[in-house]
Specification:
mainly alpha
């Protein structure tokens, strides 16, 4: 895969530093997350050949088994975390707050008030 030109040329990001309110400095954990995001953003615009050299891999063969095992041990499996399942009470409350159920409850109350 070859990139045609620098992808940063096509990005038109306005300078909004003057318009943005001052932000608090992140804590240790937030700082680590920001640096990880900065690293990922840099990787997104780095040429493929440079990334292959940086990560010590071959574009045709991929990672060695040893290197893949090291990365798996360090970063864990490449999968998304599953959100927790909602409790029965939460499911019940979600059902009660749907539009049609509220409409039926209001009409039942109005019907009883009429008699």
């Amino acid at each position: 895969l070859k990139l045609l030109g620098d992808p940063r040329e096509h990005l038109q990001i306005p300078n909004t530093d003057d318009q943005m309110p001052p932000q608090k400095k992140p804590g240790k954990q937030g700082s680590a997350q920001l640096s990880q995001l900065d690293k990922q953003a840099e990787d997104a615009v780095t040429p493929i050949d440079a990334l292959a050299t940086q990560y010590k891999t071959d574009l045709n063969k991929g990672l060695s088994t040893k290197k893949a095992a090291e990365i798996l041990e360090r970063d864990g499996p490449n999968e998304l975390e599953k959100p927790p399942k909602p409790t029965l009470l939460l499911l019940f409350l979600m059902q009660l707050t749907s539009f049609i159920i509220i409409l039926l409850m209001v009409s039942a109350v109005a019907s009883e008030a009429h008699f």
